[in-house]
Amino acid sequence: MPMDMEASSSFKEGAAEIVFFDLETTVPKRVGQRFRVLEFGAIVVCPMKLVELESFTTLIRPTDLSAVALRSSRPDGITRAAVATAPLFEEVADKIFSILNGRIWAGHNIRRFDCVRIKEAFAEIGRPAPIPVGMVDSLGVLTNKFGKRAGNMKMASLASYFQLGQQKHRSLDDVRMNLEVLKHCATVLFLESTLPSILQEKWKTSSTKTTRSRANGKLNCREESSRKSPPSSPGYQLRSVPYSREGLGIGKGKQHLNVLLKHSRLLLR
């Protein structure tokens, strides 16, 4: 089974809920600085119907407030004043643990980033981190299945491709957008699998990125060779993933997106 979609050997289909989660953090400005969690947001989703069952979000005050910028370049960005009265991570750790532990984890680029930050945050307060029963990283899954037709595969690019609005870079908004992006991608893939000689051929003979032409407002296809790269901050370093295949007891299973593809039929009725 591809690493971007994993399931533990004890997982039974339909037995676990999916939790889409996202973190907002500080960005290290120099080597040696750490990422500090500023916001956690999650939605629990029924894997059979892809509907939201539960949601939770909270701002988080880092122990060192000076690590948070006084101002944000984004309209809805998190500032020092916004987190000044927020709870510390240890004060919301029980809730975060309960919403993550024993569920399938899903998110965009969570394997490289969010999973690492969660483990670091729990280690800092001397507590064991939650453990998933499976993991779906939509960055890898969609890059493999959907291709680069949406550009660099960042969430903002995917949302723009499907005209879902602008990414807000706030945790709860982003996870809900992540789910909608997956639904849209699954529907497109289902349509292409239904009419492969017509729809799939289109992507073989044309480009893989669709952009809106500034000249006439029509959609045109052109070649796109960019790929997602890590942040350019000198303090950023890729970390090893704390939730390895061995740690999850990973076994062989179904190909990724099968569940989403199956239920995308409901969207077409």
TrEMBL record:
<dbReference type="Pfam" id="PF00929">
    <property type="entry name" value="RNase_T"/>
</dbReference>
<keyword id="KW-0269">Exonuclease</keyword>
<protein>
    <recommendedName>
        <fullName>Exonuclease domain-containing protein</fullName>
    </recommendedName>
</protein>
<dbReference type="InterPro" id="IPR036397">
    <property type="entry name" value="RNaseH_sf"/>
</dbReference>
<dbReference type="InterPro" id="IPR012337">
    <property type="entry name" value="RNaseH-like_sf"/>
</dbReference>
<dbReference type="GO" id="GO:0003676">
    <property type="term" value="F:nucleic acid binding"/>
</dbReference>
<keyword id="KW-0540">Nuclease</keyword>
<keyword id="KW-0479">Metal-binding</keyword>
<dbReference type="InterPro" id="IPR013520">
    <property type="entry name" value="Ribonucl_H"/>
</dbReference>
<feature type="region of interest" description="Disordered">
    <location>
        <begin position="206"/>
        <end position="240"/>
    </location>
</feature>
<feature type="domain" description="Exonuclease">
    <location>
        <begin position="17"/>
        <end position="191"/>
    </location>
</feature>
<keyword id="KW-0460">Magnesium</keyword>
<keyword id="KW-0378">Hydrolase</keyword>
<dbReference type="GO" id="GO:0046872">
    <property type="term" value="F:metal ion binding"/>
</dbReference>
<dbReference type="GO" id="GO:0008408">
    <property type="term" value="F:3'-5' exonuclease activity"/>
</dbReference>
